[in-house]
């Protein structure tokens, strides 16, 4: 679940990260290196990669093949599709066989990514007065108010006679004119969200660090595209500021997860026992985080 691009065992033991994308479980090592084979013909892929195609259960699946210094064949499915990383000496026939063996997993993950892409597009924010985006798992409505300065959060008032259809509405008031450019609105909201993220994340780190018996030396906000958080052996914690869109339970899971790495720099049963000691419902939160979708905020 936490792939690392760092090389070497020493680096792996001193750094972990929580990924947004699906990487298949560690595969078994391939057979010993055979005699050298002809190099794979390069197609239209990026430097060092080839674009190929495989037939899985009657479906033609394109994939990117990259030869790398590794001991086994690895598969990653992201919103961009299927990527295969294989040792330079493994013949294409062995790669095709490995793809067939992982066919069910690959097809399932591709379907999940397509569904995620649909949900992501539906969550695109169109910046303007009255636009909405998720904040702590609930809708946050942006209101432009030129009569004020700065930003102000109104948590809303609960209905005195609530029904299942009525919930308090959070309103974020911005001191901007109705004619404000979408980029200006986006930047103001993003700056506010990042301030809220730092304040909340620091509080939750303090909340979990004590019971875990660990010391966090610092917290940095991340804008990483492929991971929710990371932890270093020196006590530095990095958390993706966009976690602020999610419910407090999901935020707590990521915080507890990263702080637990300060005791166990791995994902062994001991590590998960540490997480469970402060966040017993971690399995449910982990599953929900895998399905969570961030709003697209780049459109102005």
Question: What features would you describe in this structure?
Answer:
The chain is an alpha+beta fold and 300 residues long. The chain has 2 domains: 21-122, no CATH class; 132-291, Metalloproteases ("zincins"), catalytic domain (Zincin-like, 2-Layer Sandwich), CATH 3.30.2010. 33% of the residues lie in helices and 24% in strands. The chain has 7 helices and 13 strands. It has helices at 9-13, 92-101, 103-122, 182-212, 248-260, 269-278, 282-291, and strands spanning 15-19, 22-23, 49-56, 59-68, 74-78, 81-87, 132-135, 138-144, 151-154, 170-174, 218-222, 227-232, 236-240. The chain has a 5-stranded mixed sheet, covered by helices on one side. Strand 7 and strand 8 form a beta hairpin. Helix 4 packs across helix 5 (248-260). The chain is globular. The protein starts with 8 loop residues before the first helix and ends in a 9-residue tail after the last helix. The model is unreliable at 1-15 and 28-45 (pLDDT under 50).
